[in-house]
Amino acid sequence: MTQALNILCAGLLAFAAPTLAASDTASDTASDSGPLVEIEVLDGGRTARGTYMGALRLTLQAGWKTYWRSPGDAGIPPNFDWRGSSNIATLAIIWPTPEVTMTSGYQTIGYHDQLVLPIEITASSPDLPVTLAGQMMLGLCKDICVPSEVSFDHQLNLQADRNPAIAAAMANRPYSAQEAGVKSTTCSLSATKYGIQVEARISMPAAGNTEVAVIESGTPLAFGGATATKRRGNMLIATTEFLPTSNDGFALDRSKLRITVLGSRHAVDIRGCAAG
What letter does residue 233 receive in the DSSP assignment? Predict the structure, then answer.
């Protein structure tokens, strides 16, 4: 059901996707009352590691939301095209903790009103200018869902001071497994009729009230359905089934699995698991 809904949303978005001009600040002007979304690139200066911080700041019209990298039962994840960027060896997106909401009976995961998405950049040549440019494709939802494609093109100010908006978004990211007191994470894999079921057992303190776990496959060859989550004392058990995205099949590498636990007090980002 999840994949069918995602494919449907993706098809609708692709059918009506608008084209926007590139600039430091771009917007989707699909609404008579103003842009549904505006995007700008923020400067965050140089880190102690010698990398540079930037961010994409999305400002949504009141009441609208967009999706996390794993959108839940319905919706599509954002996609990025970084062509146009220059002097970038690697970049890493740091996702702030998203919200879990129910929409028409479906669980969705995303952000309301504004999203600051920090990006840590390693320059190919540290002393030369760095340009962050490209497009972001995303879905926007309120009473209806509409497509958006926004462009950005910005030469970073490498001498910029620490940016409070980026710092706040970084502080809102999920805890690491160590920070959250995770003692162990094991995953058992079993074949199903059409794919592979993963059962993750996570020994960790509760993250607060109802916990929602999301398991990501770590491979574009597999997609996952909804994750069932239950707790037994200090053990959180999360189960999902992965299915192939094509007829070529797939394999799962436990070290590439990524498990995010979303609770009312905090979230936890767990990278990889042992056999169990």
Answer: T
Boundary-marking domain end, from 146, 171, 196:
171
pLDDT of residue 152: 98
**Are 75 and 97 within one domain?**
yes
Does residue 74 sit in the same domain as residue 190? no
- Kindly state whether residues 62 and 104 are assigned to the same domain: yes
Q: Give the residue among 63, 68, 57 at the shortest CA–CA distance from 31.
A: 63
111 close to 100: Cβ distance less than 8 angstroms? no
Say which residue the tokens 């590139």 belong to. 22
Asked if residue 166 and residue 250 are part of one domain, the reply reads: no
Query: What average pLDDT does range 112-134 have in this prediction?
Result: 96
Cα distances from 24 to residues 34, 86, 90, 155, in angstroms, run 18, 15, 21, 9
Distance CA 243, CA 197 (A): 9
Q: Which of 114, 139, 171 is the last residue of a domain?
A: 171
Cα–Cα distances in angstroms (integers) from residue 227 to residues 156, 204, 260, in the given order: 39, 18, 11
Quote the tokens at residue 189: 């894999």
d(CA 9, CA 28): 18
**Boundaries of domain holding 140:** 2-171
Residues in the chain: 276
- Tell the residue number behind the tokens 């669980």, with chain if given: 107
pLDDT (tens digit per residue) in 186-197? 999 999 999 999
Q: Tell whether 70 and 180 lie within a shared domain.
A: no
